[in-house]
Amino acid sequence: MTPAAEESEWVERELDRAQNRHKPILPVLLRGAFFRLGNVHYEDVTAGRMPTGEFVARLRNALNAPSDSPAP
To answer: Which of 4, 8, 23, 27 gives 42 a disulfide partner, CB atoms 3.0 to 4.6 angstroms apart?
Structure first.
């Protein structure tokens, strides 16, 4: 998440698509949190931090989870 990303029409579309398809949203905070994602846990990578092992495991699990919607 960055201020520029929050203003991006494409990021907004991606968030809408993920929510409509019941996909997990796993935000990464680089600079400035999104108001829209205020209730979603995010991974803080400010100050040059790397994502935690727990977050990487959540990403891997999300990639291996069955899809709720048909493939395009």
So the answer is: 27
Q: What is the mean pLDDT of the chain?
A: 88
Quick check: 70 pLDDT over 70? no
User: What is the pLDDT confidence band of residue 46, given thresholds at 50, 70 and 90?
Assistant: very high
- 3-state SS, the chain, equals CCHHHHHCHHHHHHHHHHHHCCCCCCCEECCCCCCCCCCCCCEECHHHCCCCHHHHHHHHHHHHCCCCCCCC
Boundaries of domain holding 40: 3-64
